[in-house]
Amino acid sequence: MTTQPDNLSRQDTAAAWVFILPAIAGLLSFVLLPFALALLLSFTNLRLGSPLPTEFMGWTQYQRIFTDTAFLRALGNNTLFALTVVPLQTVLALLLATLVNRPLRGMIAFRSLFFMPVVFPLSLVSVVWILMFAPGPQGTINSLLEFVTLGAWQPRDFLHDTFWALPAITLTSIWQGVGFQMVILLAALQSIPAELYEAAKVDGASGRQQFLHITLPQLRNALIFVVLVTTILAFRLFDQVQIMTQGGPQHATTTVMYEAVNAAFAGQQVARGAAMTVVFFTIVLLITLLQRYVLKHEKAIE
Amino acid sequence: MNHRRVLNSVLVYSLLPGMSLIFLIPVWMMLAGSFKADDLVLQHAGSLQGYFPASMSMQNYQDVFDRVPFLRYLLNSMLITSTIVIAGALVNSLAGYALARLRWPGRDWILLVIIALMIIPLEAIAVPLFYEVTLLGWRDTYLVQIVPFIANAFSIYLFYTFFLGLPREFEEAARIDGAGSWRIFFNIVAPNAKPVYAAVAILTFLTQWGSFLWPLMVTHSEEVRPLPLGIAAFYTLPPLQWGDIFAFGVMMVSPVLLVFIVFQRWFVAGVATTGVKG
Q: Quick check: B39 and A129 in contact, CB under 8 A?
């Protein structure tokens, strides 16, 4: 019954391969292979059901999408969406997390309420918010704005308005997603050592000073993480657009993923769709690298 | 100092209900609307009548079952999601354990690849994956909605970091007693890893239950489509009847809401773990 180290590690190796094989098979076939295919196909003219033979086309697909007004508009929309959703949602998540992070009665109920929309599928949330944005004076948002502005507000058809459609989707997305970020920030808030605040109180620091000089610096990593995740989510925007506006009116709410899916799915232009998702992935990669860089840089300063 | 504290509490207690209203209104509107006559839902959407229906009727719920195969969507969603959650927990925890505890050539290299794969979202590979499953002839099946999502790099990573932090003593004692890796894993490691299993299960559940883009691309018949596609299709099915749509919505979300209310601690803890890795 003696297990020599040599024998043991051979046993280990055999077991390890059995343990990891299903996962590797899955990741290889359904992540790595399609990822390589995306790069490969984007340089061809592949179409589903086309009688023409597939040919290598170099950068042609990329030239085409970067001169396509709808795709350029999609890139712009995603960027605008990210630039509004990320600050708004992060600040709101932080506000909610600090509100809920108090030893007062009933806080768990509020925390659950703010988190609740996270368990709602986006498709359902989108449909519900279509009614919230209903045109005419009887729409919820319209009548609310009319009430707040004492009747000065002119009711409008938000989702068919080239200016208001994207903000409407932004509001819907924040409502559904902010609870997720709140929970992450709440966990970070609760891991700040209480001694820091006690020491600050002894030194006579005000609530605002404590927030600026203890809370925010301690939350830095969590905040950077939340910003990263929300930015990437903003570039993945699809469900709300598909259900609420179909990219319209006049491409006002189209997104990179909406264009990619339409190319591949409705138009059967797999190569074109692949080129768009490669652009999408490049953006995600750049955002991730930027976050890594910021984290490293900040560590270097310490 | 003290009056400031009181002021602070007043502020918190007045800000909280205001915020709560924003989160409650759409949900309450859906619930109240589901009991109202279809034509009244839109008519009352902007007034208080919309939130306190004068009369309640279950007609909309009946209509849902008459107009669309709701139960089919529900069963499809449950089958697809639960298979991914259960198979994913098994496959990814085994992989995480092999990476964290077993010694084998190639381990560090594979760990690096898995960490790199974490940043590839489904969206980045959706189009070629669509092409791949078309070649495989998998379109419009359960298979195509389940198999690609079982192995998950992020789940493996969560298991890996959890197992690294687990004390080794019990495993070593069992090994000296002659237990093999399988027995050690299932009898000693897995029972001590409940928090990470719960976190992974909940995160997987949240993404898969709401999954929309992928089933939209690869399915077209009602027999295999899940709830999120069901509600989207129901919304576009003429005539537009908001009462019916909301009844669908209430039935779609209430089982999940119930699970959430019972296990909310686990939900919150599970989501919080995603932030810890950052």
A: no
